[in-house]
Design goal:
about 260 residues, alpha/beta, nine-stranded parallel sheet, 10 helices, elongated
């Protein structure tokens, strides 16, 4: 069956009017038929790609795509099992260079970024980062300079690293720059705290738990105050999972003081 499917893609793939492709675990398919990677890369009409990438073959396929992708969802594997020379496999900035001029929206899970290079995706307006441990704010700001809406989900890490990660992010933005026109940022207070944004963000949307320890109100208040002082929002929204904090007098003082 895989042989017939490969023949179909290899002979007619470039002419197929295929606009959307989802590959849940392509490494299994590529193990049975490695030439599938070249066949998928040769497709020219894809605009929407949803794919898991945790191996070198899939990474090379993405980097050689002939389609001009517009919407991409990447499920990566993080850096735990990768050597220094293999980190590009989990780096969305490196993987999507063939669509630099067309990509508009990116959702990525378990990503890592290497030191910022010359790659830039000027048309990306929506960026969603999921399960990104220790996000490097400047790397994303340089690669996706015109992001309008930024969403974060579960970017938290150990309490002993929160302040360090935030300081590194702020120092890099102070030295190299940050987003010029970011309009909305959505995530938990911890997610936004780690980013250490050095730009105004008119709309902050808080959702999820306050910190890793929901009962630690003092830390939550401190984080909210720091976030609001840096981003100077015009409006703050709290989703149902986070709205209980507005009944806490200590949290309300953050907004009274602004």
């Amino acid at each position: 069956a895989t042989g017939k499917l490969y023949s179909l893609f290899s002979e007619h793939g470039a002419k197929m009017p295929l606009g959307c492709l989802r590959l849940e675990d392509p490494s299994v398919l590529f193990t049975h038929e490695p030439r599938f990677a070249d066949a998928f890369a040769s497709l020219e009409s894809l605009a929407d790609l949803d794919i898991t990438c945790e191996d070198e073959t899939t990474a090379q396929m993405l980097m050689s795509m002939r389609s001009s992708l517009v919407w991409v969802t990447l499920r990566l594997g993080g850096s735990r099992w990768l050597s220094a020379s293999e980190l590009y496999i989990a780096d969305p900035i490196a993987l999507l260079t063939s669509s630099q001029s067309t990509l508009r929206a990116l959702t990525v899970s378990n990503a890592v970024t290497q030191p910022a290079g010359p790659e830039a995706y000027p048309r990306v307006r929506q960026l969603t980062l999921k399960c990104v441990n220790k996000p490097r704010t400047h790397d994303y700001a340089q690669a996706f300079p015109n992001v309008y809406e930024l969403t974060l989900d579960s970017c938290g890490t150990g309490t002993w690293e929160w302040d360090h990660i935030r300081k590194v992010n702020q120092d890099e933005q102070d030295e190299y720059g940050t987003w010029p026109s970011l309009h909305m940022v959505k995530g938990s207070p911890l997610d936004l705290y780690l980013l250490g944004l050095r730009c105004q963000v008119p709309l902050l949307c808080f959702e999820g738990i306050l910190t890793v320890d929901e009962d630690d109100q003092d830390t939550a208040v401190s984080m909210l105050r720091s976030i609001c002082l840096d981003a100077t929002p015009i409006r703050c929204d709290f989703t149902s999972t986070c709205s209980f904090i507005v009944n806490e007098p200590s949290v309300l003082t953050v907004f009274d003081s602004e």
